[in-house]
Amino acid sequence: MPATGTFPSELVHVLKTHNGKSSFDLHSSVTPTPPFTLNCPVNALTFSSYPGTYLLTGSSDRAIHLSRALPNSTSDPTSIVETTSPIQKYEAHGYSVLDVAVTVDNARFASVGGDRLVFLWDVEQGGTVRRWTGHTSRVEAVQFAGENDSVVVSGSADTTINLWDSRSNSHKPIQTLSEASDTVSSLHVHMPTYSIASGSYDGRARVYDVRTGRATVDVLAYPVTSVRCSADGNALLASTLDGRIRMIDRADGRLLRAFGGDEQTGKRHGNLESKYRNKELRIRSVFAKADAVVLSGSEAGDIDDKSKRTDQAHVFAWDVLTGEIIATVPAGEGIKVVSCVAWNEKTNCWAGGCVNGTVKVYA
């Protein structure tokens, strides 16, 4: 379906809950110089399941925070609300939190990170109910699968995907998928088609059929930083480190549409020309507006040059049918990376996780 109406781009809420010293790693952000006074990058975020009232955010400060996504109504509807304290903090990781996922009933969530661990949490109790230790390197991606979200799927820099049974007390995975030859950077489970999609730095997007155990492979030539299935399961969205996002037909591997690239430029903001860039870091992309829009964060032109305060990352939105940019939203002065975005269909809003530790919500 076409992208109808105006894409939401009004900043309504800024979360400033993540801060302090961090264990910066390769995929968190640009590594600052000592004494590490910058707020910790937000590496992962997700809305709670329907209706998406809350946000779970994971950061290089090693914590996951639960916060309200949209602020309570204020007397001034044009004001931007800032929140500095989360509703709940979840702390158990020893290194950066790199991904989070939440169950459909919002009772549990899973988190993974640089400490090679996979945690299953009880949202209300605030503690872990399972801790799995089967990976031998940092864990970059996590998803839920199976009946009643009983299976946790994790992807790691050890090149494997592990499936864990949350109903069992076993510390061993029930299945390990080991086709990748480099870091598994991203996962997306599509239960209607019994599929697990994965992206790897070996330049391949793989989709596993859990019923047959077979995998289809799309060779994209560049490291894959993000994968996402469309709601109907017919298309796969894959972000790669050549600065492009490709939408692929899952049936035959045809390229349906490509987004980004050096030839595509967004709206100018002041003297700056916004261009989608993803050359160095793990940037996540998602479908939005009932799969009519592709939404992604980006890198600034020179993410290492902190002297260029006016250079900043943007969040881009493309029309799926035409491939045209329909919105470019500046991240803010000095913010060089927006590494993750999440869309909430119910409230028609979205959030972006920034390198300076903030999360910005737009409606």
UniProtKB/TrEMBL annotation:
Keywords recorded for this protein, A-Z: Cytoplasm, Repeat, WD repeat
Gene Ontology terms: biological process: mRNA splicing, via spliceosome
A Pfam family matched in the record: WD40
GO terms for cellular component: catalytic step 2 spliceosome; cytoplasm
Keyword flag RNA-binding: no
SUPFAM superfamilies linked: WD40 repeat-like
PROSITE patterns named in the record: WD_REPEATS_1, WD_REPEATS_2, WD_REPEATS_REGION
Top-level taxon of origin: Eukaryota
Subcellular localization, as worded in the UniProt entry: Cytoplasm
Main location: cytoplasm
Record-stated family: Belongs to the WD repeat MORG1 family.
Name listed for the protein in its UniProt record: Uncharacterized protein
Source organism of this protein record: Elaphomyces granulatus
